[in-house]
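Thread amino acids onto this structure.
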């Protein structure tokens, strides 16, 4: 079996209202990852701006842009100049009144290798995403690149084992989750720990169940609620990479900006799936009810 290893870079950033500054700081950190040998760099969810979904405001639709457009040109040049595969997360204006939360993957020549439109859309206090985003219509389809096949999903998708499984069943080499998740300040320390641990455990579980590495990149820092109705969100960072047995390969701090690179051995997935042949033993003849909302 031919050994296949890739170096992956993660960029965890605290954003401000200055979009140009956010993008320029991202560019610097992407360059830092590439200088350390990264062939693949992953950014956080909706990384160009503040997380605008804390309130429902039609003015925020002005942040959306077409794909291709200004941001895809910006990140395309970075991917091409650094000869890396780059996973970005953009607010897509598909048509007037039709918007998506869209991950765009650039190959090392700067071309768009593919995109994924977020499928699961939350609607919770301070996460009013259903107001802004139409659910994706591209399905759970991995994106082929020069370094491998990427199962790119986005944030709320990371709680759904079905999404990870469908990516794995279509040949994804690893699962990638650009993310924006954090705490409400009034939660107790114990509750905050439970929430963060659940987030980590869920994604490590996807790695184990599918025998694939997982890359999760979260934003960090406090972002105030423009309406003043809540105390804003403290994004909890803790971006991480785990291997196909859920083993943590690298993890970021909870409270500061961070970028790092880590080597992932993709041949481990082959070995782990030989030891734990979950895909072989699936009872595909007995899962028909999985497509029902609830089994009464």
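Threaded sequence (296 positions):
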């Amino acid at each position: 079996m031919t050994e296949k290893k890739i170096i992956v870079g993660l960029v965890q950033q605290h954003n401000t209202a200055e979009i140009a500054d956010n993008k320029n700081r991202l560019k610097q950190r992407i360059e830092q990852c590439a200088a350390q040998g990264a062939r693949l760099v992953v950014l956080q969810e909706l990384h160009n701006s503040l997380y605008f979904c804390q309130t429902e405001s039609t003015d925020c639709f002005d942040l959306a842009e077409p794909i291709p457009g200004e941001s895809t040109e910006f990140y395309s040049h970075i991917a091409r100049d650094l000869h890396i595969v780059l996973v970005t997360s953009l607010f897509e204006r598909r048509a007037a009144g039709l918007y998506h939360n869209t991950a765009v993957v650039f190959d090392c020549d700067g071309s768009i290798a593919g995109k994924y439109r977020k499928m699961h859309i939350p609607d919770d206090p301070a996460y009013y995403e259903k107001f802004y985003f139409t659910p994706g219509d591209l399905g759970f389809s991995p994106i082929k690149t020069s370094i491998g096949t990427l199962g790119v999903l986005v944030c709320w998708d990371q709680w759904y084992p079905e999404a990870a499984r469908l990516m794995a069943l279509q040949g994804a080499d690893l699962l990638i989750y650009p993310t924006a998740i954090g705490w409400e300040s009034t939660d107790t320390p114990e509750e905050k720990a439970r929430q963060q641990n659940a987030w980590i455990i869920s994604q490590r579980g996807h790695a184990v169940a599918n025998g694939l590495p997982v890359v999760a990149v979260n934003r960090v820092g406090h972002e105030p609620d423009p309406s003043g109705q809540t105390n804003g969100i403290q994004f909890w960072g803790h971006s991480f990479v785990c291997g196909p047995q859920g083993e943590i390969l690298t993890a970021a701090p909870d409270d500061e900006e961070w970028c790092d690179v880590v080597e992932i051995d993709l041949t481990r997935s082959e070995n782990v799936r030989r030891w734990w042949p979950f895909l072989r033993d699936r009872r595909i003849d007995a899962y028909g009810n999985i497509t029902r909302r609830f089994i009464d």
